[in-house]
Amino acid sequence: MREVSLLRLYLLRGMYLLLVVGLGVDLWPKIIDPPADLEHMRGVVWSVLSAVAVLAILGLRYPLRMLPLLFFEIVWKLIWVLAIGLPLWTGHRLDPATRDTLFSCLFGLVIVPLVIPWRYVLATYVSQPGDRWRQSSDSARSPSSSVESVRSSAT
User: Which of 24, 26, 144, 146 could form an S-S bond across to 139 if both were Cys, CB 3.0 to 4.6 Å?
Assistant: First the structure.
């Protein structure tokens, strides 16, 4: 597997920092002191995006291990743009708030893929075999062998 360059790791950390600060500044005041008339789904969205901001803190330390968080960013933005943003835009029904969301999502759909180390992603998530689905035949025979295999894989 190819090693990811230090520059790419810093770009990833910058992306995680952008998530932490960008989402944190906007959302945490709303989470800490929510309005009395908060709509149910708006509260859900704020909570999910706040969780992304909190998890992005881990990305500062473990930029490669937290790549699935960036995948989540790409996927939810792509779904929103394709299912909601573009139909509203083509139907000339964008209000100012939705227009801001559309452009923010489009910006994210350009920037996030640029910082992702795609060769690493292919080598790690596509080329490597997935985790097993069943208990191996060796560990089925002896309970102590499964404990030993867990210990040896953890070290």
Answer: 146
Counting the structural domains of the chain, the total is 1
3-state secondary structure the chain: CCCCCHHHHHHHHHHHHHHHHHHHHHHHHHHHCCCCCCCHHHHHHHHHHHHHHHHHHHHHHCCCCCHHHHHHHHHHHHHHHHHHHHHHHHCCCCCHHHHHHHHHHHHHHHHHHHHCCHHHHHHHHHHCCCCCCCCCHHHHHCHHHHHHHHHHHHC
pLDDT at residue 124 in the model:
94
Residue 98, in any domain of the structure:
yes
The answer to the question of residue 109 being in a domain is yes
